[in-house]
Structures are given as C-alpha cells and as structure tokens.
Amino acid sequence: MFDTEVQRILDYVGHGIGVRIVGAPGSGKTTVASSAVFNLEKTGFTIHAVTGLRTHRAIPYAAVKGLGMEMRPGRSGVLDLADVLASQLAKAGKHLLLVDDLHLLDNESLAVLEAVRQQSAAPMIATVPETHAFTRGQLAVLNQGREAVLQLDPLHYEQVHALVARVLGGPADIDTTARILTKSGGNPRLVVRIAETASLSNLLVRRDGTWQMSGTSLWNDHLRGTVEALLAELPPEDVTALHSMAILGTARIDVLQKIVSADALDSLERQGFLSIMDDHHNGTIAAISPPMIVDYFRGRRTLRDRHMLRSKIAGMLDSTPQIPGIEATTADCLPRVLSALRSERGNDDAVTARHFHEHSAVRERSRFERWELNKTAANAAALLRVYWGAPVDPLRAARVVNETSTHDADPADLLFLTITKALLAMPAGGLSSAVEVLLQFAEAHPAHKAEAEAAIQFLSASHGRVPPPDAGSSPDGSSEEKPGTLAVLTRALLELYRCKPLEALRIVDEAEDDELFPHLRPFIKGFGLFAVGRVDESLVFALDWRAEARKNLDQFGVVTSSYVAAHGLLYSGHFDEAEYLMSSVFAMGRPGFVVDILYDAMLRLAGLRQATTTTTATVSIAAQARAGVPDVGPLPGVGKGVYVLIAKENQKPAGFDRQASRLIKQQLRSGYTLEAMMAAMLFTCLVPGRPVLDLLQRIVRESGVTVHEQFTAIASAVVEADHQLLGLLLKHYEPDTDVYQIGMLLRSALKRRVVEGDNAAAEALAKASSSFAARFPSANEQLAFNTFEASSLTEREIEVAALAGYLSNVEIGERLRISARTVENHISNALRKTGASSRTSLFILVGNTFPPK
After folding, report:
1. To 10 degrees, what angle do helices 334-344 and 575-586 make?
2. Fewer CB atoms < 10 Å away: N or C end of the chain?
C-alpha cells in the first residue's frame, strides 16, 4: 500500500535528509514510519524512537524518558537529558531519530529534542497532522537541518479495492468498494475498520467469490469508538457544529453560517473535518469529512432534525445539466487541462461522490413524488432521466414505465419512456425483448417509426453486431423525409463503430443538437477526434466536458467524458492521470442505463497496466467488471476479450499471435472495426507479430485514417527484421501522435527477440530503441508485456534482475544493502530459471524501463 512512500523515505534518509510525514489522523503516518524504520534497521541503522501520547502531554519529560536512557543521580534537566541522547547519536554507526506524533509531545521533551538536534546531524523522521497549527517549541524541533516533506493523501478507488481485499481475504464488488471509499473519505484506518466491522456485523457477505453488502448501510455500533477517537481533540462547540451539519447535510456556506458560527466552520476546515467544493448551481458548498461522521450523528435524529432535513430538500434546485458546446478545442490547451486534472487529485473523491449521491437521491425522490401525484409521460421521463446516470432502482423504474399514462404525451417524452422500457427489458429477455418493445411502439405510433428504428439500430449495434453500411437505406442514401436528430446521430455512431471516424465527425458537425439525448453528440465528437488521430484535441475536449459535468453533478456526463479522456491519457502514456480519472468515476459506484458498459470498460482499462507489468498474483480491479459479456464490443474495453488475452499468464509469443489474430477477426466479423483497430495497435505495441500487423494495416488502409502510416511502416520493418530499413525509417521519423507507441513497439520487439533467443536481432533492436529514446525522451512510463514465465522468480531475484542491465554487482549490493556475492547468486538463479543468456537479456525480460545513456 505504501511501498512508494517508504522507498522515498529510504532514499532521503540515505542522503542524510530528515523526513516530515504529514497526513490526517488514520492516514497511515505511523505505518509508513514503522515500515521505513524496519527497512533501515536491516541496513544497520540504530533507531532512537520517541512517541507522543495524548494522555502524557501534561507529564514532564514523559516522551524522552521512554527512551530508557541511563542518567546520573541529580542530573535530569533538559540539557542533561539532551547531552546523553546526543552522545548516543554520536556513537559509531548510522543513527536515526524517530518522533511519532510530535504534536503530542510534552514541552520538556520538545526542549530536549531541540537541544539534541542542535548538537547532532542525525536525520529525523517525524509524523505530524496535516492541518496542525504548530507551537514554537514544535517548530524548533522540526526546523533543524535538511528536511523533506512527505504528504499522505487519501486513498483512491484502486488502493481501497486492494486494501479491502487484503483485510477481508478477497475482493469486494464495485458498489461495496465505492461505498467504503465514500464513507471512509479514503482514510486507510477507516477503510480497515469499516470493512472489519461490517463483516463482523454480517453487513458484508461473501457471494460468488466477492464481498457484497447485505443491506443498504455499512454503519454499525462497532464503529462508534473509531469515530469518537477521531473527534477526541475537538472542543465541544466544534462537535456541536458537526452535529448540526450532519443533520443538514451538504449545503451552501451561506446556509451553514445561519446555524454554525463562522469560527467553528474555520476551525473544522483547518482540522480537516470540512471539505469545501465549488458547485455550479449552489456556489461554494461544504460537507463533513470523512462522511462516516455523518452516520455517527444521524443515529440520534429528532423531530427538529427531520424538519431541517425537509427544509433542506425543499430548497434544492432541480436544474437541467448543461452540456458544453462541441466546438473543436485546440491542442495547445492540453497543459491547462492536464494541470487542472493533476491539481484535482488532492481533492477528496469520497466527498465528491457523496455529493453526487445526495443530489441524485434528492432529484429521484422529488421526481418520484411528483410522478405519483400525476402519472404523466413528462413526469415519468423526468424521473427516468435520473436513472440514465445515477444508480437504478429497477422496481421503481418498472413501475413507472408500466403505470404511466401516455394520453396526450409529448412525442419526445413518449420516445424516451419507450427506450427506457426497452432497456429495462434487456437484462431478463436480452436484445430481442428490447427490440420487440420498440417495434410495438413503431406500430402503434407510425409518425415516430423513424426514431424507433434508429433506437433499434443503436441497441442492435451496441449489443450484437453492426449492420452493413447500406442496410435499411435507399441505394442513393437519400430518403423522402429528413431524418430526425436521433437517426442522424445513430448513423454517426455506427460509422464510429465501423472505424470511419472522419465520416462520423462530418455527420456530427452537420447534425442539430438533440435535446432528448444531449450526451450522444459530444461523445461521438470526442471519441471521433481520438479515433482519427487528433488525440490531444480529443483529450482537451473530453476533460473540459468532464469538468463541466462535475460542476453540474451530471454523473452520466462524467462517465462518458471520462471514458473518452481515459483513452487519450492512456494512449499518450499519462497513466497516473488516467488512473486517478477512472478512480474518481469508480468512487461513485456503478451508474445507470447505457453508461454502465462504459464503467465496466474503464475497469478493464484500469486493469491493463497491472496485467502487462505484474509478475506476482494480485487482485485486479478489472475483476469487478461484469464477466457475463461477449469477448467483443463496439468500443475498446466494452468487450472482455482484449483484457482476458493480455491478462493470461506465461504466454509464448507465437501462441499470443494466434489468439490475438483470432480475436481481431471476431471483432471484424461483428462489424466492430474500431475496437479491432485499437486492439491490433495495442497487441502490436506489446507483442509485435506479423499476423496481427497484417490485420492492422488492412484496417488502417480501409478506414481512411492516415495518421498511423509511420507507425505501421516501422512496425513492418521490426517484424520483418529489416534493420537497415528500420534505421532509415527511424532516422527520418517526424513526431506524430504515435511517438509513444513507437517507443513501446521497439522495446517490446526487443523483449520478444530475447525470449525467442535471437541475440543478433535483439542487439540491433536495443541500439534502435536506445537511439529513439534519446531522440524522443518520454517522461511517461512505458508498458512492457511480460510474455515469459516469471512466477518462479522470487521478489529479490526480480529486484536484482531489474538492476542487472546497467549496474555492477557491487553497485547493486550497495543499493539493495546486500553483499556482491549475494547479488551474484541471485543473478545466477534468475538466469537459470528464465533461460536468459546474459545479464542484459535478463534485464530486458524483467525490467520495465531502459536506463538512460
């Protein structure tokens, strides 16, 4: 969980730099410090640990006397204790001062430590709260010598998923993981406590290998002590303020100030119990963090409390989300949107997700009450529109579509109602049931036959196969009457599925806005830009759309825009940004109609990086995607075949070629040419082979997209082992949208040649790869597919092998703090197990990056 943070601490301390570990209560500060100390002790460090305790702050010298120092009688003053401790730090060897919970130390102990730090250059690791207002004495201890600050941010979805699986002994499903993240605020201690107590209380049960919620809540009495420990340092007025806020819920700052004093709000925000967010509709809003505190206080709700809740619900504005315009955005805006996304990573996903949930729940409740009073198609459509983004209540949705009166209904509302009814029929009856609903509608309402047929085309193509381009149209492509906007956008979407992005973009640019399905047009626009090779432009467009959707609390828009943006980020190698973006979507839980398939697709995309690089068995986040779907789909990730193939263990290149070719041909037979092209690009980058490359070249040639011509030419030279031609192509290569992919291609081809034992080709490719990397350096991590059997290597053997390509045995030993003889034994064992012929070959097999020249 904290391997990266621990390694950073080890690097700092190794250079004589102290570390201040900063985080909220329960963020893992003590765990990180303890893990770092454990590793330092193994390398010969002597640790002098001082721990602050809340109950000992008023006891003089309580902290430093815990060191057990031997003192001469009558010599127990500040300088006396400091001299003894400083003399211990001055002894031969490496020494480290550890101060856990420095803010809880008594003043006398702080004075001793200040004196010691003035006398000794030994580094110090200190853990402190994130928002603490330090006293002069505390600052005097901290601000001595060189110091690095390590910030522990809240966990994101993937980290919570892994931590819950570790605690419970198995993975949790999507909604359970999202709920635990939401309630804990990403706090590791709370994640563990919620998971443990929920399983003890039978609020979590194991079904079909995954942990699932047995009810609608995870709150239980076992959590009461955990929350009380969080609130222990708060004064009574702040606790009262939290209680009032818990009753009111997420609200505008100006509303909160009517029941909570401004000083209390400032105090709570300073201590990390209040999250401030900008909301498009309501201005600046505030919510309690972590949200589990709300459950603690709401357990004691009164009549007055319920009155306040009703007043709050009545005051909520129910406005229609706005979708940004689809005018093209220039790629020079990319630094702006990436910077905004990176700065967003420090925000609290759990609080944001909870705000979405509350907004959706209020809308759903108020619209259902309105429908119950007047069961018109307009009221039904307003309610069902919530379910197109937020989680669905299937029983309530079925009741609405069955009991709604369609007399004198607006055609748009009637069509929306019918399409929703068709979607509800699919889980039980499949695609045929949905089509039957739409056919009955077309027969009963001939005036809307064109829209019904467009809806049938959309569902059939998205869940079965894409019809031939001329199916259902006249020979000249014309019709007697102008098609509606839904029919036009459906045709654009089908062209996108067929990998005709230029045609899809042309249709979208000429189409009118569709008020019934406002997200369809920007989705086609954004993914069309990506498919045509204008990746940066697609990324800017999608991230701007996503930012607007987040402000509008539009979960449908957030999911669709994030799917488009995730592809752009992954294609450009921005893996950290892509993982955060998808994690923020996962934190909201499984969404409603239509976009749930994009949600599953992102789960598989998030699992690809782990599947291509891991050498040990781990719980993949992709396991949370629904397994009962076809291998192929209309868009990348919708079908499970690509992920399943890449996630297979211990594959041989030739076998991978056969399976990859078979999958691509299956995609082409279904008409999902865009998915086939993206799969072929990925397979070629990870395991370059002639069968897949032939299919890729054919798809690119027939699609009309010319942006990948340099890539396919270089890939052809690579798989044909024409190193002279490869050198010329790389020499004259002009940077385009595939520069990252070419770097991945060259490294993967090198790896494949090593696996196949072709040392001459491997040497030539090594030179080409190094030369290309020097000419086009990338700050982003390169994926590298582990096609060899590495499961037999130990963790230490993998660690040594990853350094063997560019460090000597002595240098590896110094870095890992083991002897050169031990390094030699590890390399010998790894060579024997993998069959590699040299240290360089072993490094290529195991390492995921080439060292810079």
Report:
1. 50
2. C
Angle CA(771)–CA(775)–CA(779) in degrees, nearest 5?
110
121 with 145: CB under 8 angstroms? Answer: yes
- Please write the tens of the pLDDT for every residue from 341-399: 877 765 667 778 888 888 888 889 999 999 999 999 999 999 999 998 888 888 899 89
Of 313 and 751, the one with more pLDDT:
751
Contact 823, 768 (CB under 8 A): no
Helices 78-89, 107-119: inter-axial angle, 10-degree rounding: 40
Nearest to 791 by CA among 609, 611, 615: 615
Q: In sequence order, what are the beta bridge partners of 18?
A: 147
Global confidence as pTM: 0.78
Cα angle vertex 582, ends 671, 700, to 5°?
Answer: 30
Residue type, 110: L
DSSP 780: S
Cis amide bond preceding 290, omega within 30: yes
Q: How far apart are CA 149 and CA 129, in angstroms?
A: 12
Q: Are 305 and 247 in contact (CB under 8 A)?
A: yes
Q: CA 584, CA 356: separation in Å to the nearest integer?
A: 12
Report how far residue 328's alpha carbon sits from residue 745's, in angstroms, rounded to the nearest whole number.
31
Distance between CA atoms of residues 39 and 113, nearest Å: 24
Torsion of CA 121, 124, 128, 132, to 10 degrees: 0
Helices (H) and strands (E) in the chain, counts: 40, 10
Q: 815 is written with which tokens?
A: 């870095």
- CA–centroid distance for 165 within its chain: 17
pLDDT in the model for residue 229: 87
Query: Of 584, 587, 582, whose CA–CA distance to 565 is shortest?
Result: 582
CA-based torsion, 237, 240, 241, 242: positive or negative:
positive
